[in-house]
Amino acid sequence: MQRQVVESSALNSMGYDPSSKILELEFRDSGDVWQYFGFPVTAYRKFISADSLGNYFVTKIKGKYPELRVR
Q1: Which residue blocks in the chain are alpha helix, DSSP H?
Q2: Fewer CB within 10 Å of terminal CB in the chain, N or C?
Q3: Tens digit of each residue's pLDDT (9 = 90 or more) over 14-28
Q4: Domain tally for the chain?
Q5: CA-to-CA distance for 50 and 53, rounded, in angstroms?
Q6: 1, 10 in Cβ contact below 8 A?
Q7: Which residue range forms the structural domain that includes residue 56?
Protein backbone atom coordinates (compact mmCIF):
# COMPACT_ATOMS: atom_id res chain seq x y z
CA MET A 1 0.00 0.00 0.00
CA GLN A 2 1.22 3.49 -0.82
CA ARG A 3 1.70 5.59 2.31
CA GLN A 4 2.20 9.34 2.69
CA VAL A 5 4.55 10.91 5.23
CA VAL A 6 2.62 12.73 7.95
CA GLU A 7 3.50 15.35 10.55
CA SER A 8 2.98 13.54 13.82
CA SER A 9 4.99 12.69 16.90
CA ALA A 10 3.43 9.20 16.86
CA LEU A 11 3.32 8.29 13.14
CA ASN A 12 5.78 8.36 10.26
CA SER A 13 3.32 7.63 7.47
CA MET A 14 -0.19 6.51 6.71
CA GLY A 15 -2.08 5.04 3.78
CA TYR A 16 -5.66 4.17 3.05
CA ASP A 17 -7.40 1.98 0.50
CA PRO A 18 -11.08 2.98 0.33
CA SER A 19 -12.10 -0.01 -1.80
CA SER A 20 -10.91 -2.53 0.80
CA LYS A 21 -11.36 -0.16 3.78
CA ILE A 22 -7.83 -0.82 5.03
CA LEU A 23 -5.90 1.80 6.98
CA GLU A 24 -2.13 1.30 7.16
CA LEU A 25 0.01 3.12 9.72
CA GLU A 26 3.77 3.24 10.24
CA PHE A 27 4.67 4.13 13.81
CA ARG A 28 7.54 6.50 14.57
CA ASP A 29 8.97 4.86 17.71
CA SER A 30 9.06 1.24 16.60
CA GLY A 31 8.96 1.52 12.80
CA ASP A 32 6.21 -1.12 12.88
CA VAL A 33 3.56 -1.08 10.19
CA TRP A 34 0.02 -2.08 11.13
CA GLN A 35 -3.13 -2.50 9.07
CA TYR A 36 -6.63 -1.83 10.41
CA PHE A 37 -9.55 -3.48 8.64
CA GLY A 38 -13.10 -2.30 8.04
CA PHE A 39 -12.04 1.33 8.46
CA PRO A 40 -14.76 3.54 6.93
CA VAL A 41 -13.99 6.41 4.56
CA THR A 42 -15.77 8.83 6.90
CA ALA A 43 -13.50 7.79 9.78
CA TYR A 44 -10.43 8.24 7.55
CA ARG A 45 -11.49 11.79 6.67
CA LYS A 46 -11.91 12.61 10.37
CA PHE A 47 -8.55 10.99 11.16
CA ILE A 48 -6.55 12.96 8.59
CA SER A 49 -8.13 16.24 9.69
CA ALA A 50 -7.65 15.62 13.44
CA ASP A 51 -5.57 18.11 15.43
CA SER A 52 -3.53 15.20 16.80
CA LEU A 53 -3.14 12.01 14.77
CA GLY A 54 -1.69 10.20 17.77
CA ASN A 55 -4.55 11.15 20.06
CA TYR A 56 -7.14 10.24 17.43
CA PHE A 57 -5.44 6.87 16.95
CA VAL A 58 -5.44 6.07 20.67
CA THR A 59 -9.02 7.19 21.30
CA LYS A 60 -10.81 6.20 18.07
CA ILE A 61 -8.83 3.42 16.33
CA LYS A 62 -6.64 1.34 18.66
CA GLY A 63 -8.53 -1.73 19.84
CA LYS A 64 -11.64 -0.83 17.87
CA TYR A 65 -10.82 -2.40 14.48
CA PRO A 66 -9.35 -5.77 13.51
CA GLU A 67 -5.60 -5.26 13.13
CA LEU A 68 -2.55 -7.00 11.73
CA ARG A 69 1.14 -6.17 12.12
CA VAL A 70 2.62 -6.38 8.63
CA ARG A 71 6.16 -5.21 9.40
Answers
A1: 41-48, 53-56
A2: C
A3: 999 999 999 999 999
A4: 1
A5: 6
A6: no
A7: 4-69
